[in-house]
Amino acid sequence: MKLKVVTSDGKTGARTGGPSTRHLLREAAIELFMAKGYDGVSVAEIARSADAFPNQVTHHFGSKEALFVEAASRAVLRSAKQAELRTRDSKSNEDHTRKLISYLLGPGSPAVMMFAEAMLMARRKADLQEIIRETVAELHVAGEAAMVDTLMRTGWRVRTTPDIITRGFWSAIFGLALEKAALGERFEYSTAEAVALMMINLKGNFSDPRG
Amino acid sequence: MKLKVVTSDGKTGARTGGPSTRHLLREAAIELFMAKGYDGVSVAEIARSADAFPNQVTHHFGSKEALFVEAASRAVLRSAKQAELRTRDSKSNEDHTRKLISYLLGPGSPAVMMFAEAMLMARRKADLQEIIRETVAELHVAGEAAMVDTLMRTGWRVRTTPDIITRGFWSAIFGLALEKAALGERFEYSTAEAVALMMINLKGNFSDPRG
Predict the structure, then answer these.
(1) B198 and A197: CB-CB below 8 Å?
(2) Can you tell me the distance from the alpha carbon of B130 to that of B126, in angstroms, rounded to the nearest whole number?
(3) pLDDT reported for residue B36
């Protein structure tokens, strides 16, 4: 049985002997928003699922929109981590790139789409923009670190810096996810393959005439 | 003075001696949605601006969402055309790519963002998906044609096919536009530059070891 405890310093989310209310609310929000979309979920439902009160959402996050953006940010960072873990054993650069894209457009796509929606939501809202900015920066840093790691392990050559490849990769993934969500079954996989080929061309382990 | 005429065959938008009501509604929608966003504009306001009745929106487009998706589609196709016209005189591949991206993230960005929003709106809605699918296909066809034209004119070499480059380009542009909209002044131009370098690398007019 879960405890329903409202601490006096709820702002920090501190709660004795278990995950904080803030944490539980965010986890419930990730699950519910991902399943039913922003409009399909009420604050009351999220609170109920986290064994909390609706006003605790306002207290910890400020608004339903801010909770959505925080949930989407956490979800996309987890998806990125999963994509990295599942592609670690790739045997070639081509294999690695295709696996990354397949994961992010497949099992990882609800999180990527949720973050795309959060990005649209954050327009002209300074507090939400700040969460998006931090998340995009984290995606870039984590992606760059994973790439440097892969390059050191495999000796694959790249045409440009891991920083540039990572930034370009995420822009293309956000765009692909948007197209795939919009087109549903009508999405043409040749578009995903085009992005894969773009990345493979950049990361190609062939001898560069200028290298 | 504009005429307010409701024709019996309004479905085809036919109206004697002037642009059809359908056309006027779509143009008014482009202007108003681009200025004030989806939620900031009412159907009544669009109808008023097109000198039409609100029920004509329903008649010609079915819903406010469908009108938005049609308006966004037309707007992004126009922006793409403008981007092409304004970069025709580029002196090098690098210059061409940077000018394209600058236009689409600058003067062309309201249209690109509107289309990104329309893509999110079209999720799980078959009739809206069909409009998005046609528009994306048109963007690909027009982009490929423009690229083939440029390559024939300049003799620039590319690493892969114009079809792949065009598809990859638009995915990256949609992603970049989303990031720029979400981050506002916090958007880092190094991300746009990363996409430019990705494209330049693909389109580079250097000797390819495999060519």
Answers:
(1) no
(2) 6
(3) 92
pLDDT tens profile B115-159: 999 998 898 788 999 999 999 999 999 999 998 888 888 888 777
> Are B203 and B156 in contact, with CB atoms under 8 Å apart?
yes
Does domain A72-211 fall under CATH 3.40.50.1480? My reply is: no
**A204 band by pLDDT with thresholds 50, 70 and 90:** low
pLDDT tens-digit readout, B98-114: 999 999 999 999 999 99
When scoring A119, A166, A202, A206 by the number of chain B Cβ atoms within 10 A, the one with the most, hence best to mutate, is A119
Taking a C-beta distance cutoff of 8 angstroms, is the pair A190, A164 a contact?
no
Beta-carbon contacts of A202 under 8 Å, excluding residues fewer than 6 positions away, are A158, A159, A160, A165, A168, B198, B201, B202
Q: What is the third-level CATH fold of A1-62?
A: Arc Repressor Mutant, subunit A (1.10.10)
CA distance B147 to chain A (A): 15
Residues of chain A with CATH 1.10.357.10: 72-211
Residues forming CATH 1.10.10.60 domain(s) in chain B: 1-62
Q: How many CB pairs under 8 A join A and B?
A: 162
B120·A181 Cβ contact <8 A: yes
Contacts of A115 in chain B (CB under 8 A): none
Contact B172 A175 (CB under 8 A): yes
Q: Do A198 and B164 touch (CB under 8 A)?
A: yes
| Closest Cβ–Cβ partner in B122, B186, B201 for A160 | B201
Distance of alpha carbon A119 from alpha carbon B177, whole angstroms:
10
